[in-house]
Design brief:
It contains 4 helices and 12 strands; from the N terminus they run E-E-E-E-E-E-H-E-E-E-E-E-H-E-H-H. It is of the alpha+beta class. The protein has 2 domains: 174 residues, Chondroitinase Ac, Chain A, domain 3 (Sandwich), CATH 2.60.220.30; 33 residues. Strand 2 and strand 3 form a beta hairpin.
Length: 212
């Protein structure tokens, strides 16, 4: 399911995108920009599984996977986005069905190499839904997931601040990345290459003199 709208984005003003499709868990995307962007399309794609742009599965018990795209490629980054607030909803029946507290519902965002936990306070609830907000200053694949308290401490957390990319707590268990150990071997290879070149030059010189 895909839902998109055009709105004008202006510097230091809140632009609200309201989404109404019944299958869309995203209700609002409110953007405060650092630039005057004019007419800008914001698109929400509700996915059947993890986004194809993602390398690792979403932590926790996933409610919905979504892609949120703002503007053209490269626009939705902290340089242009001062702050954005995403309002979304989760069915109460789903919460009770998996026996998870609403306080454990989190929105996570894929930053290109790992999932980052966003601030996700609960705002209100009614008979059918519980409503949440998540703050970000960039857009990409997102997921709404239920994360137990012990597990949430292992996910890097981003605290969105105006004009700041956020503080990320590194966690190699999420990214699967290992520290680089390639620098010494690269330097050694360069030294060998230099000596090899010197040897070739000497050999050519001796051959020309007829002593080779």
């Amino acid at each position: 399911m895909r839902e998109k709208y055009d709105r004008d984005i202006y510097i230091n003003k809140v632009t609200q995108y309201a989404f109404t499709h019944p299958e869309n868990p995203i209700i609002y995307v409110n953007i405060t920009a650092n630039v005057n962007a004019g007419e800008t399309i914001t698109t929400v794609e509700v996915l059947k599984s993890t986004s194809s742009f993602v390398n690792y599965s979403v932590p926790g018990k996933v409610y919905k996977n979504v892609n949120i795209w703002v503007g053209t490629s490269g626009f939705a980054v902290p340089k242009n986005i001062k702050e954005a607030v995403i309002t979304f909803r989760v069915e109460n029946s789903w919460l009770s069905g998996i026996n998870i507290k609403s306080s454990n519902i989190k929105m996570v965002r894929w930053d290109g190499s790992k999932w980052n936990l966003l601030e996700t306070p609960e705002k209100t609830k009614d008979d059918k839904y519980t409503y949440f907000e998540a703050k970000t200053n960039a857009f990409s694949p997102f997921a709404i997931t239920g994360v137990e308290e012990a597990a949430s401490s292992t996910i890097p957390q981003v605290i969105a601040q105006p004009g700041v990319t956020g503080a990320v707590i590194p966690n190699s268990t999420i990214t699967g990345e290992a520290p680089s150990e390639g620098a010494p071997s690269v330097n050694f290879a360069i030294i060998i290459a230099v000596f090899a070149m010197i040897g070739i030059v000497i050999a050519v010189h001796l051959k020309r003199r007829g002593n080779f």
